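Researcher: I'd like a structural prediction for the single chain below. Treat it as a standalone chain; there are no partners to consider.
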Amino acid sequence: MFRKIGQSRAASVVWSLGFSLMLGGAGLAAAQPPGGGQGRRDGRPPDPRGRQQQQYSIEQAVSDEAQLHTIAFNGLAFITGDFGAATFLPPGKVCDFFGFQYMRDIDAAGKGHNPMFLDRVAANVLQALNDEQRALFQQAARQEADNWRKLAGKRFPLIDAFYRELRGEIPQGSPGLDRESVARYVGDLFAFDAELSYRRAQVFGQVAVSLAPEQRTALSRMKFGDFNTWPAVDMEQYKLPRGTEKAVNVAYMTYASEFFSWFAGTVEADTYFCPERHGTYFGGFFMKDMPAMGQRDFDISTSVTGDSGRAFLDALTPDERGWITEIVNRQRKALAEIVRVRRAIAMELRKFLSGETPGRDTIVALGRRYGELDGEMSCDYASAFAEVGKALTASQRQTLATLRGLQGYRSAPAYIYSDPLTAAPALPNTDAFFFSPGRKQ
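Model: Treating it as a single chain, here is the predicted structure.
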C-alpha cells in the first residue's frame, strides 16, 4: 500500500548543522518541557507558582498514546466529514515556530484554549509598543495577508486527493496514493511556510532590538504561560482601521501575540508542537473547534481529542483497528526527525533576537524537509482511513456519526483557515498524487 520516500538533500542540512546531537543518546527523552519567561533562556518551567514539571512536552506530544488517539480522532473526522470541513485550520497551525502553542498549552489559568487568550496577550503587547513598532506589525500583516491566504489554498488539492482515496475515485490502473508525490508536494508547502516564518521572525527581531528599557519592564510583568498576570486592556485604541480585511486583522493580532511568546520564551518552547500539528488535512480541527466559533469566552476541552479517538478505535473491528494502530510504529522515525528539524529551524530564527541574520536558504531547506516528513505521515493516515472507510458496516457508520457530535453544524464549501468560502474552490486535476507504474519518480 505504501511507497517509501528517500531522504531528500534538504535533510542533510539538519545533520550538517549538528542539531541531531542536541537530543543526545537518550533521543526524544532528552527534550525537556519548554518554558521560560521575561527573556529567560535556561529552559526552566515558567510556572509562577513553582511547579517543576508540566503536563505538556515534546515527549508527551510524540508518545504512542498521544499520537494514536490523535490519529484516530482525525480518522473519525475524515470518515464522517467532508472536503469543506477538512480545509478548516486554525491560523496558529502555520508558521508556528514562536512558542505560542506551548504558552497556551501550559497556561496556569487554563485559558489557553479560550478565544480570550490571544486577544489578551496581543492587547498587552500592543499597549507596550510605540507607534513606530506597532506600524511595523501593521505593515508586515498587510504584506503577509496574500501569501497567508495562498498557503491555505495550497492545501486544497491535497485534501481533494485524500477524499478521492476515501471514495475510491482513483485513476484507472493506480493502486492508490503515491507517498513520494504527496511528500514532495507537502515539502513545497512547508518550504513556503518557512519563508513566511523567516519574514515574521525578521520583523520580531527588528521590534525586539528597538525596545526601550521601560518597554522591556512592561513586558516582563507579563508571565509566560499565566493569563492571570495579563491585565485586561482596552483593545479599541489599537485596532486597525474599520474596513481592514479580515486576513490583515488576523495577521496583525498574530504578530502581536506571537511576538510575546517568542520574546519571553525559549527555543524549547518554539520546538514544541501539540500532537495535532501534523496531518492537518482530515477535519479534526473543524470537529474540535467549531462549537467555539463566534464565542468570546468558550473553553475548548483538552480531552476531546483523546476521548473521541479512543471511542473511534473501540467502534472498529480488530482488523480495522490494526490499520490505524500500525501507523504509530511506522511514523516513529519521522517524528524523531521532525523534532530535530523544528529545533534547527527555531535556533536559526532566534538569531534575529541577537541582531544576527539567519540563513534564509537553510531555513527554507529545513522547512521543505519538514514538509516531506509531514507528507509521508499524512499519506499513511489517508491510506489507512480509506481502508477503514471501505470496511465499515452501516451500523458502524451510524455509531461514528453519533461520535462526531456536531448535530446542527454544516461545513462551508471550504475555509481559508477558519474563514468560510461561499463557493467551492476551483481545483486542478489531482491525479498526480496517485501512483502510476509508468511515471518516473
